[in-house]
# Entry
Amino acid sequence: MSAAAVRTKAIQSLQRQLLATRQTQTSQQIIPTGLTSVDTILPHGGLPTASLIEWVFDDVGLHAASIALKSIAPMLTLPGCLAIVDERHDFHADAARCHGIPLSRMLLIRPARAACLPSTTSHSRFVRQASGTHSDALWALEQTARCPGVRVVLTFLELASSAVMRRLQLAVERSGVTIVLVRPASILHQPSFADLRLHVTVAEPALAGLTARRRLIVRLLRSRHGLQHTGHAQLEVDHETGAVHSISELADSMPATAPAF
Amino acid sequence: MLCIRFPNWPIQCLQQRLRSEGECPPSLALHTLHTAAAGSTDRTAPRRASDVDADLKYLRAVFPTASTGPAVVAVSRDAWIVGVRPGMPLAEARSMAQPLPVNSRASHRQPPQNRTRPSAQKSDSPRAANVATTPNVSFHEWMPDSDRHTLAAVAEFTRRYAPVVGMDSMPLPDSLLLDITGCGPLFGGEAALAELLLRDLKLADWTARIAVADTIAAVWALTHTEHAPPEVRRNSRRSASNVSRRTSSGPTDMHQNHDLPIQIIPPGMEQQEISSLPIAASRLPLKDLQILSHLGIRSIGQLFSLPREDLPSRLSAVAVERFHQLHSLADEFIDPLPECNPVAAAWSSEYPVNSFDDIRQVLQHLVESVAEQIARRHVACSVLTCDLTCASGKKLPLSAGVVKPTQSAELMFEVLSLRLETLPLSEPVTAISMAVQAVPIPVSRQRDLFSPTEHIRPQEELATLIARLSNRMGPQSVSTIRIQADPRPEHAIVLDPVIANADSAARAPQSEHILQQLTESDSNAIPDIECTLPRPLRLLATPQLIAGRDDDQHPPARIPVLGKQKQIIELHGPERIQTAWWTDEPCHRDYYRAVTESGGQLWIFRDLQSGKWYLHGLYD
# Structure
């Protein structure tokens, strides 16, 4: 067999494998977030389904999870529920309502705290339940990510190994579920398995709090499809209602050099 | 739904018991004992303390005399004629039943239970003759758990008419609820089923009334409405041909129909039929009935005409729920009684198993056995219960539930294996017994013309996920969320576990509804943003103390937040929440939105009573 024939055969084999892989994967849809300025910086103008999305925040209280919730609310027009894996047992669902999340679509998963688990015994043959809350939360997250009855999973995740993240990535590709991880800035130095990594910071900390509305900046740090837009999105939090709004940058104040007519 | 009501149930139970002993006097009265918990003396019946306590509490609310001493609970018709009434103190009832003859000293010395009537020929006076013709009343101790036990036995007797039979959920139950969905055609229709059932009950010497309608609230109201006191209501002797078959063609005489032994309400006519019934048939708590009585509300129809949104502020939560059930706005399900002949399997060995893998193999074998049984009986499993007997004789319970009743051995084994991992097992196991709570197979309805199973798949997948998570991490770990009208932030939401209780299979149809709500988009469910309050997305389960009493009414400049010190640069507020002073958890707080130097926002409050500052939430 000639070298060309061998090459052709290898290419055909790889094509078959690629086709088989594509068939097992769920096709992605792009769902606009409803926040115009955020959609502008996203690769296809919205969040992809069947993907892993990270929202990273600099400090607590920066509304990162609120923005994440607001951005996934349009996904709930599709069938499937919103699962919240709440390892810390402090997710307050009442606040999710002001971001357009219907509570009837929300499933709250709270792994039992370590103190509630049965105590381990000295009889080693029978000891199986040494898992703590964190590993239970990771297990629940992966199980939820593998369930096609779930549309989106949202969780606060600080510590996760590369193996865990890779497993989550494979799970969403298979099931079509979207995982939204809200993570602290301490993970920025870690490799990312996410399709999108967005960073939330506060705009001008010294001045931002002086008004009833608070401005936040969202930057796209990583995209699997490449960074098409290097700018940032500006958002505003209305403290009277708790709602997150998109704001547009003002036009340049310099006068036009040529008359319009 | 079909409801069988046994009028004057405690007396019917007593009559059955006395008949079995060979003697049943016509005049009977049941009374309580001196102590509160002494209502039960039946040592053979499985005593459920909470049920009996609820019965006694309800009884004391209805008959205040029962809380101060022994009182009459129920009387037969002949005893009523004598003048003995429920709620009467026992001493008064005895004197009423047996007025002492003027000239009869001998009978005065006899103990009350053994007194005999002075014969007519011994006395010549008209009063003595009157006394002689008065029937004797036999007083017996009331045993509420024995009554419940007997009702459960009758439920087993009626099980051939419906797979799901449950007891009335009210205190002092006197009726059975049967889910006869799909059972009518097997007996020639629902009317024929009810006739056959009533005939069988009469043959067994039970007096009963039956109602068939779409909701539990309607059948309960129809069977519990009568226009004469229950104790003197003559047992209906009408033939089954007198069955009321009301149609929507025109109104009928309610007073006549409510005395018929069988009433069948056509679908969709429940509210019209129960509107004219008295408010007492609505199953509202006594206190709420008193409130409504003060307001002049006498019938269910008048209750329906009240503005629905105002009810929560005037009535209790239970009453509001009952109202919604009457209005068919809330679902209600039968809590099924366990079968006498349950689906079960057992294993025991002389050689104990001493590893999880071996136990798992035994469980798999038992699961396959019960799966075969439930497939043969055409039922499904909602809860699997196991008892593991250790070498020392100690028994470890192990139970696993599923969201949607299933016949799948694989799913049953999977959830049981997950539950096994959390079992604190420390010694070898010698025997395992397994029982299944069987429920009807859920019916899947096609809602899409071209893809009959497309909408079912996500729900099935979600049901499996919830079963898996709940059994691995505990039933409380997976829940749905409901808003509660409570201004206290920590009480603003209620978590409802999807698999609430491993012992209850009543939620099976409810679970299907929950799954549908979770997976299907509903434009009406989207909340109105304008009506929500800005609350933090993270609310600490226990508020974290950040500063002690401060007379200046200002929080400290630096506060600890999750282990780190934060500088507060702004403070917005306050929002005063001062409520629930009538509860054990009163709320007297001034909430502030605090902005830190890094721009983060915190939700802190000052307790108005103690003056201390707490961190309660984070605007994440």
